[in-house]
Amino acid sequence: MKFVVQTFKAEKRLILISFLIFVLSCILGIVAGLYFGDEIQRFINQYIRKLFENILKNAKSPYLLFLAILKNNMKVYLIIITVGTLTFGLISVFVLLTNGFIVGAVATISAKELSIGKTLLLILPHGIFEIAAFIIGSAASAIFLESAVFSKEKPKLNIAFKRFLVLAVCGAFLVVFAAFIEAFVTSSFAR
Fold it and tell me: Pfam families, per this entry (predicted)?
């Protein structure tokens, strides 16, 4: 447990950078939702709604919904961890930018249609954990770049690998927990 805490302290800069990337793209999504709501609504109807319909079509129970959400979110998380690491975090930045923009835009449009309170109920319970997982995974994907390029000391790949594993596993647990919350809690607010 001590190494987990040390890892989060040691990698706080990467986590903060990942968080800021998400927040800035979320703000861009909010602005886009305010000024280009109709165009974004068409995009949502055409692509994002189809994604959710595919996830939900076989989910006849909260348990099956949990598995469908987990499968979808774990795919995204594994892309962040694997492809993100192979590209030294570039793909992870792209995923954060895309997800942040979509969250901001969808939340803005949803708040216009429903209410801010209802929108927050549909996003926050699971979103806190899901977004945290993607941020932590993105930070993990950049550990080797930071260790090799930005470290003032000689790179210690064994320490970088251990830190990568700690963050990757913590993020994976958050993805599972977020899917559980989304299936069993958030879905009840959607009814």
Answer: SpoIIM (PF01944)
φ, ψ of residue 114 to 5 degrees: the values are -100, -85
Alpha helices in the chain (DSSP H): 2-10, 12-35, 37-43, 49-56, 62-78, 84-86, 90-113, 116-141, 143-145, 157-181, 187-190
For residue 166 the two structure tokens come to 């700690």
> Alpha carbon of 153 to those of 14, 51, 146, 147, 149: distances in Å?
17, 45, 11, 9, 10
- 97-112 pLDDT per residue, tens: 999 999 999 999 989 8
Burial class (CB in 10 A: 0-12, 13-18, 19+), 69: buried
CA dihedral of 76, 78, 79, 81, whole degrees rounded to 10: 130
Per-residue tokens: 122: 């549909």
The one-character DSSP state at 191 is -
Asked whether the beta carbons of 122 and 190 are under 8 A apart, the reply is yes
Query: Residue 141 in contact with residue 92, Cβ under 8 Å?
Result: yes
By CB atoms closer than 10 A (0-12, 13-18, 19+), residue 60 is exposed
Residue 33, token pair as written in the block = 């939702």
Read off the pTM.
0.91
Q: Are 90 and 78 in contact (CB under 8 A)?
A: no
Q: Angle at CA 130, nearest 5°, toward 179 and 94?
A: 130
